[in-house]
Model the fold of this input.
Amino acid sequence: MHGADGLGDLWSEPIAPKNLSPLNSAELLVELGRSRPGYYDLLPVGPLTNLGIALEIEPNLLTLFRSVVIMGGSGPFPPLGVVQMVDANIHNDAVAAARVFASPRRELVMVGVNVTAGTIVDEQAVQALHRAGTKVGTFSAQVLEAYMDFYQVAWGRRVSPAHDGFAAALLVQPEWITRSERGPVNITTDGFATRAHLMRTDTGLPVSWETTPAPDTHVVLDVDREAFLTDFVRVLSGAPGRIRTAGGRHPDHAALPESRGLTCPLEGALRRRSNLRVRSTRGVLQCAESPESSSSPGDGPMSALSPG
Done:
């Protein structure tokens, strides 16, 4: 569904990567964590293979990141008779996912398909991006339309859930989380699909079998979709304005770290920091300040965006 280029096959010619790190993705994740403990936020938005390998190198890796926000998982078990969307990022490497959810951490947030599947970018949103008349808006609309080619057979409409984008947004806008719960997450399978579930039913009861002990994960249960979708379309259209930094917090997510200072890849940070450079290094999109920058560690954290 993502295409060979990861962007819906919009490019006729492959784009050669630049500024590659000599390290592989797992090694780079370890280097980032060890270099500035508690400074970086990590956002895995794909199968957790690279993060799982990195945990073999550094078992305490998640404690070295200020927070880790995962796009993946399925929340608690659904109500009786309800079928959830496939939990692809967990299903595609269940071994790595099990290692991640069992590992010690500062803060691990699960933004699962239980919330992203209902966060829908619809036909009107894509039309708004086209009407913006900007390069960013047009490009974003074309990428979304490629996803809509896939999802239209699921719902009979040309719409697309905002999976990865929503997880990224909640990293920097945690006040959009309206309900959440902390508890152990285990990897489960019914013989057809593999998922990461909070070990409780939809009514809050414990599951009916013995679970595997694990540290608590901050599991997102509900969100302010309208606020996100409004800002999502505004940012992708290239419209003026700034993304707000996290301010007031709902008690359910009071412990989620504030995103302050330098955060990527959202436009607010790019606008504030003209000396920001971004490098793609074997699956990790790293945002960093240019060498000429005079900023200090106190200016705020950076975020690494990793497909796992």
Notes: The chain has a mean pLDDT of 81. Residues 29 and 54 are 7 Å apart (CA to CA). DSSP finds eleven helices and eleven strands in the chain.
